Amino acid sequence: MLNSNVNVSGKIETRGIRGATVVSANTPCEIEKATVELTNEMLSRNSIKVEDIAFAVFTLTKDLNAAFPAKYARLKCGFDMVPMMCYQELDVPNSIQMCLRALFVVNTSLPQSRVKHVYLKGAKTLRADLERDIVK
Question: Which of 3, 18, 97, 135 could tie 117 with a disulfide, CB 3.0–4.6 Å?
């Protein structure tokens, strides 16, 4: 569980939790659905409390520009006080398209090896090496 923020030495540690999904269309509605689904899955699988999130970063591939994912994390997932930024992903030839990625930096004492990264839909191919942690 990520609820304990202080390790045995009394220090607060941070861990990065990654996630990604493929958005079905470049519309505000579809970006909202993808953001909420991915965010909720990342929170649930890692037992994250929103108040433990230090900051969140969302990226979108260049073919997704109809809305800001951070807007939906704030309005639909309770990220009111979480600092967030949205960026355009680097446009690498032959890379996955219509992809929304997230990075949550969380205050926790959980070892990095126990963090569950979440890759949904067509984004599962991004980290096939993490198959044991990928949501089916």
Answer: 18
